[in-house]
TrEMBL record:
Membrane topology note: Multi-pass membrane protein
Family of this protein: Belongs to the ABC-4 integral membrane protein family.
Species the sequence originates in: Paenimyroides marinum
Entry keyword annotation includes DNA-binding: no
Domain MacB-like periplasmic core residue range list: 21-240
The protein's name: Putative ABC transport system permease protein
Transmembrane parts of this sequence: 21-42, 287-312, 332-358, 378-398
Keywords on record: Cell membrane, Membrane, Transmembrane, Transmembrane helix
InterPro entries linked to this entry: ABC3_permease_C, MacB_PCD, Macrolide_Exporter_MacB
Length: 415
């Protein structure tokens, strides 16, 4: 029940001990502030990792050839492995039950591209039509590579938004324009955007059959990329992805006479397994941040508890008089708890607000590859407030219980 007199007593007591109250409040506020900063940083790490995985399909498996590091079946160390169209065709046939999208890739890392007086160096990649979905690319204008382009060795090119901005000034429409790509003329049939940003949009795609012919590659390919069929359960998806990776590695090593335990001859990147490992790590980081923050809050709460014990000791005679006049133990407990909760919640809420303001101001300017948009969401803020209330009650309970146990005759006799 609301009592003006009780609140007046609380404020009078706080005013009489301004320095003590301020120091106690600062310890609680700093604990909540540190917790908010840590949780915001944890969310920034998680958001940064999610942004990295948005650049490509999460369930992507990529394969690159390397150099053998072990002798096997009479073949020596240092042998370069070269993948071919047949490797891609046989692998996609053998493992078709796992595969959603697939593409072989032939890359030219420094392709010189010229349009009128504009020129630039960009990565040129020969791909199959499915590569659009493997890369999470969105078509802004026109279309992507199609089957007809590969079947007819068409000299069509799809350019990234960054390439379009660099080469086509004054709002020119790239579609239908001619580009000189490393000495050959291609027609622009599409412009794409990529969630990975400018780095991913600084590429151009051409049909892989055209790329192999234009760069005298024969049937050689530089890498292969797949996405796997989705599963309702993340753990099942990881297990199937691991199974696919193992079968693909076994098939390619047998086909190219590579030792089963040779780790340098083929490089296989499984983004789903990476995602699981990284999310386990980020979950651990978040748990550690919560632990550190809670420990800091506990330190502040202990300070509140100590202050309340001092207050009870100072007011022993007053509490004895109250009890002698008929005050019930529950009223004494409520009085002490109310003051403890008030100090804790006001100080903690100040720390919470200050922490949120810091992230609101600083957050938009903090950007890195694996750190972006540090923030504390509404649910975490509510959870923090609940922690404050519980902490305040806990800090005041022992002193309040001690006050309720004071015997009036003892309190009135003591100094």
């Amino acid at each position: 029940m609301f009592s003006i007199e009780r609140w007046q007593e609380i404020f009078e007591g706080l005013y009489k001990n301004k320095l003590r109250t301020a120091l106690t409040g600062v310890s609680v506020a700093s604990g909540i502030f540190i917790l908010v900063i840590l949780l915001g940083a944890g969310n920034g790490i998680q958001n940064g990792i999610q942004k990295q995985f948005e650049q490509d399909a999460v369930n992507r498996v990529s394969v690159w050839p390397g150099v053998t590091q072990k002798e096997y079946n009479g073949l020596g160390v240092g042998r370069s492995v070269q993948l071919h169209n047949a490797d891609y065709d046989l692998a996609t046939t053998l493992l078709k039950d796992y595969i959603e999208y697939k593409s072989a890739i032939f890359s030219v890392w420094s392709g010189n591209i010229v349009y009128k007086k504009e020129t630039g160096t960009y990565r040129v990649e020969g791909v199959h039509p499915d590569y659009q979905f493997i890369e999470n690319a969105s078509i802004v204008k026109g279309r992507f590579v199609n089957q007809s382009d590969n079947a007819n060795y068409e000299k069509n090119v799809i350019i990234g938004q960054k390439v379009a901005n660099d080469l086509f000034k004054n709002g020119e429409d790239p579609l239908g324009e001619q580009l000189n790509v490393s000495g050959m003329i291609y027609k622009v049939v599409g412009v794409y955007s990529d969630p990975g940003g400018e780095r991913e949009e600084s590429r151009v795609f051409i049909p892989i059959a055209t790329a192999q012919k234009a760069y005298s590659a024969g049937d050689s390919i530089r890498s292969m990329a797949f996405t796997l069929k989705k599963s309702d359960q993340f753990d099942n998806a990881v297990a199937e992805s691991h199974e696919f990776t193992q079968k693909l590695e076994t098939f390619l090593k047998a086909r190219h006479t590579i030792a089963p335990d040779d780790q340098g001859a083929l490089y296989i990147n499984n983004s789903l397994e990476q995602a699981k490992n990284i999310y386990i790590i980020t979950g651990g980081v978040q748990a550690f941040f919560w632990f550190v923050g809670i420990c800091t809050i506990i330190a502040g709460v202990v300070g509140v508890g100590n202050i309340m014990l001092i207050i009870v000791k100072e007011r022993t005679k007053e509490i004895g008089i109250r009890k002698a006049l008929g005050a019930s133990p529950i009223s004494i407990i409520t009085m002490i708890l109310q003051e403890a909760v008030f100090i804790t919640v006001i100080a903690g809420f100040s720390g919470l607000i200050f922490g949120l303001i810091v992230w609101e101001i600083v957050g938009p300017y903090v950007e890195a590859d694996f750190f972006t948009r540090p923030e504390v969401d509404f649910n975490v803020a509510v959870t923090t407030l609940v922690i404050l209330i519980v902490a305040g009650a806990f800090a005041g309970f022992v002193p309040a219980y001690r006050a309720a146990k004071i015997r009036p005759i003892v309190a009135l006799r003591g100094e």
